[in-house]
Amino acid sequence: MGISVVGKMNEYHKYIKSHYFIVGIGNNSIREKIVNELNNSHAKFATIIHPNACIGSDVIINHGTVIMAGSIINSSTRIGHHSIINTGANVDHDNLIMNFVHISPGVNLAGGVKVGTKTWLGIGSSVINNIDIHSNCIIGAGSVVIHNIIIEGTYVGSPAKLIRKNS
Fold first, then answer.
1. Less packed terminus of the chain by CB within 10 Å, N or C?
2. Which entry of 93, 102, 134, 147 is annotated as an active-site residue?
C-alpha cells in the first residue's frame, strides 16, 4: 500500500523523537503493554480516522485511537486512548468508550452506552441504549447486550449471558 516499515519493535527508540506511533494490534492487553513501553520512552501517538468515517459534532477521540472506514460516531461521544473502532461500526450519541477498547466490524452501540477499559465487542454484536459494560469483558460475535454487565468475563448470545468469569 506504499507504506514503508521503518524498523522492528526492538528498534523503536531510534524513531521516538521523529515519528508518531500507532499500535494497531487488536488484542487489547498486548496493545496496552506495547503502548506502556512506548510511553516510558516518551513516544508521541497519532490518532487515525479513515476519510470514509462519519464523525458527529462534539465527539472527543483521544490519541492512539483508530477509526476505520464506514464507522459512524455520533454526537457527544467520548472515545479513550488507544482504542479501535473497526470497519462499519455504529457508535450512537452520548457514548463513553474507555481506553484500549476494541469495537469489531459491524458492532452497533445505541445511545448512552459505557464500554469499560480493555473490553472487546465481537463482530456484529449490539448493545441497547443506556447500558454499562464492565472493563475487561469480551462480548461474543453477534451477541445482544440488554442488561448492564457488572462482572468481568466473556458473554455470548441473545440476550448476552456470562459463560466465563475472568480469573
1. N
2. 93
